[in-house]
Design goal:
49% of the residues lie in helices and 0% in strands. With 71 residues, it is mainly α. The termini are far apart.
Length: 71
């Protein structure tokens, strides 16, 4: 049996993403993370934007996991 070698293929080129295209997404996710950090870390008591204990109960375990005191 004759074996034939497969032709060598070059790896596909990876095109870099410009900072101009990446900046709006970085700002969006940065703001999203700050809002999430606020709700997990500070949404209770006198600084509460949303009244009641609903938000506190939803993020209670995450608050302890991240080291935020809540009671």
């Amino acid at each position: 049996m004759a074996q034939t070698a497969a032709p060598a293929t070059a790896a596909p080129a990876i095109t870099p993403i410009s900072l101009k295209a990446l900046a709006p997404w970085a700002v969006f996710f940065g703001i999203l993370m700050l809002v999430l950090l606020y709700f997990v870390g500070a949404e209770q008591g006198a600084t509460a934007v949303i009244s009641g204990e609903g938000v506190h109960e939803w993020v209670h375990d995450g608050r302890h996991l991240l080291g935020f005191p809540c009671h």
